[in-house]
Design a protein that fits this description.
The protein is mostly helical and 168 residues long. It folds into two domains: 2-76; 95-160, no CATH class. It contains five helices and four strands, in the order H-H-H-H-H-E-E-E-E. The radius of gyration is 36 Å and the shape is rod-shaped.
């Protein structure tokens, strides 16, 4: 009798109505979330509408299904990555050389950066042509490059200006 009286009470009716209202609000909130997420991930309006319908029709199961099949990236992230790739391609396509220290413009024949005086390359001992660090022979005069002439320690170091000695 007590159980039957509990389910016939107005308190039970109010609790049931509040639970139903919360269930409907949560159901509509998940459908709205699917709509907002689909707009951020999908360009085609037709597919956005279909995703929203999927979020509404099977209550509470639709958003879970949508989450399994939604695109992995936001459209904004895809566009940003494409812009970054385009900027990197443009940077790589640049034919002008830059100093690795100060980013000042340099030419392939420069031994020293004219802006920051960083040593870029060593000169050949015979013809004074600039040598790349990995070369074992000068390509201009065929002089063998002695080991240790072009090292990583020598290259990219500032050149110190030589001061005349004072006699006296």
């Amino acid at each position: 009798m007590i159980v039957a009286d509990t389910f016939d009470s107005s308190t039970w009716d109010a609790a049931r109505n509040v639970a139903i209202l919360l269930g409907v609000v949560f159901w509509l909130a998940t459908a709205y979330w699917v709509f907002k997420d689909a707009r951020r991930r999908i360009e085609d309006p037709w597919l956005i509408a279909m995703a929203t319908v999927l979020g509404v029709v099977p209550p509470f199961l639709g958003p879970l299904i949508y989450m399994l099949f939604r695109p992995p990236e936001y459209l904004e992230d895809v566009r940003e990555r494409e812009l970054e790739m385009l900027a990197m391609e443009e940077r790589l396509a640049e034919t002008d050389l830059r100093c690795p220290v100060c980013r000042g413009p340099v030419e392939a024949s420069f031994l020293v950066c004219p802006v920051c005086t960083t040593r870029l390359k060593q000169a050949c001992t015979e013809c004074a042509a600039p040598l790349e660090p990995i070369w074992q022979v000068c390509p201009y005069c065929a002089t063998p490059v002695p080991p240790g002439v072009v090292t990583g320690e020598d290259v990219l170091q500032p050149v110190r200006a030589r001061r005349p000695r004072r006699s006296g």
